[in-house]
Amino acid sequence: MSVIHSTLAAKPVQVLVGSRDQVVTPATMRTAMQNSRHVVLARQPQGQPVPADFAVQARTLPDLPAGRVRVEVLYATANPGSRNRLSGQASYARGMALGETMEGPAVGRIVQSRNPDFQAGELVSGPFGWAEHVQVSGRGLRRVPADTPSVSAWAGILSIPGLTGYFGLRDTGAAKAGETVLISSAAGPVGATAGQIARLMGCRVIGIASGAQKLRWLREVAGFDAVVDRAGAATADDLAARIAAAAPDGVDLYFDNVGGPLLDAAIANLRLKGRIVISGQISDYNTAPEQRYGTRRVDSFISKRLRMEGLVVFDFADRFDEATTAMTGWIRDGRLKFKEHIVDGLEALPALFCAQMRGEIFGRALARLAS
Ligand SMILES: NC(=O)c1ccc[n+]([C@@H]2O[C@H](COP(=O)([O-])OP(=O)(O)OC[C@H]3O[C@@H](n4cnc5c(N)ncnc54)[C@H](OP(=O)(O)O)[C@@H]3O)[C@@H](O)[C@H]2O)c1
To answer: Is 191 in the pocket of ligand 1 (CB under 6 A)?
Structure first.
């Protein structure tokens, strides 16, 4: 496994003049039929997912229908939020069926277009999942600017995780200058983005993560004001004491990616009228719904007049361009940093996802499928 940053650019293509349906790419001279490998859900995981829960399938894509584009996926992604769907549970997205291509945001290159709004050669991000090639309509496709500072970021902080950090912090959380913001899984793409934006807004930012490498990156690269190591803390009270040491005056806003005892530890440190954004609950994703931890500090909501609000990033879809424009500017001027963990090949995705669900990945979990 390696960690790299990508600077892929849009490749020039030769388009046959007068025939929008017929496009020849220099890479493969793709014609009507296209072979593609997909990773599908082979069985529902029991607890912690394992690679055998997935299978690689070879498919032949049919002739491209009118109105659609064929995309060669460059970067596919592993996402903790997929875990519930693998057990067939619907949340804000429906549960996945056996044999279905694994979902996830991705970035790719259009290799053939029968949609007048898109041209072959353009880079696009969208929910392409774990597949080498997909045929999709233009709906939900986001065009990647040719001068983007990073193509892979369009499967990372310029797509769903970064957008979740941006809108969760600014809109759902309504962070204000001078406030103390606490973030769990702060070194992940959602948490790291939310934390750095909070710093840009003038907040004091405390990140919770595990391990010296992540904590050092949060302080020295991402510029967090303080960090809390969650590793080795046995109880919510232990975690609460560690947070209190980093936030002696209390916390105004808790951006929660994790749930479980960490949520209770954060609640213990919230100030009067404190707020909680529920972005994710990764500590419970491998646990059956009836065995999940939840919270045992509901009484504090009364005494401290707290508020907690759930976040679904797709509620902000009509403002995604606003966020990517702002974040691209911050990436360019060095104020928004991101970390990627990139593996090679479609078949590496199941193991990547399983490692992510064990908390072993540092940075946006990506698989490079083509260049
Ligand atoms: N609401 C939305 O619209 C939305 C959209 C996208 C993502 N999300 C959610 O945002 C959260 C963060 O997503 P992300 O993509 O940035 O991933 P991520 O933070 O990199 O998630 C993996 C990390 O979670 C942390 N973690 C804490 N407790 C864990 C446990 N019990 N088991 C495994 N990992 C644990 C680990 O970091 P440490 O060891 O450093 O704590 C681990 O490396 C997820 O919960 C995801 O579901 C929500």
So the answer is: yes
- pLDDT at 4 (0 to 100): 35
Given a contact cutoff of 8 angstroms between Cβ atoms, the answer to whether 259 and 81 are in contact is no
User: Do the beta carbons of residue 243 and residue 269 sit within 8 Å?
Assistant: yes
Q: Phi-psi region for residue 343, left (φ > 0), alpha (ψ -120 to 50) or beta?
A: beta
**Span 174-218, pLDDT tens digits:** 999 999 999 999 999 999 999 999 999 999 999 999 999 999 999
Q: Which domain holds residue 98?
A: 14-156+338-368
- CB distance 317 to 160 below 8 Å: no
Q: Are residues 248 and 310 in the same domain?
A: yes
| Domain CATH for 353 | 3.90.180.10
Among the listed residues 224, 243, 262, 225, the one whose alpha carbon sits nearest the alpha carbon of residue 359? 262
The stretch 235-245 carries a mean pLDDT of: 97
Structure token pair of residue 86: 């693998």
**221 and 299, same domain (yes or no):** yes
pLDDT of 88: 78
| Helix (H) or strand (E) segment spanning residue 84 | helix 83-86
**CB of 185 closer than 6 angstroms to any ligand 1 atom:** yes
Q: In the beta sheet, which residues pair with residue 77? A: 366
Q: What single-letter amino acid sits at 54?
A: F
The whole-angstrom separation of Cα 258 and Cα 250 is 20
Q: Are strands 106-113 and 133-137 parallel, antiparallel or unpaired?
A: unpaired
Which amino acid belongs to residue 121? G
For ligand 1, the distance from its centroid to the CA atom of residue 280, given in whole angstroms, is 7
Q: Is 328 in the pocket of ligand 1 (CB under 6 A)?
A: no
Q: Is 269 in the pocket of ligand 1 (CB under 6 A)?
A: no
Q: How far apart are CA 32 and CA 337, in angstroms?
A: 41
Question: Ligand 1 center to residue 262 CA distance, Å?
Answer: 13
Question: Taking the chain, what is the end-to-end CA distance rounded to the nearest angstrom?
Answer: 17
Domain identity same for 120 and 167: no
pLDDT digits (tens, 9 = 90+) for 52-74: 999 999 999 999 999 999 999 99
Cα→Cα distances 278→17, 179, 239, 254, 307, Å: 51, 18, 18, 9, 11
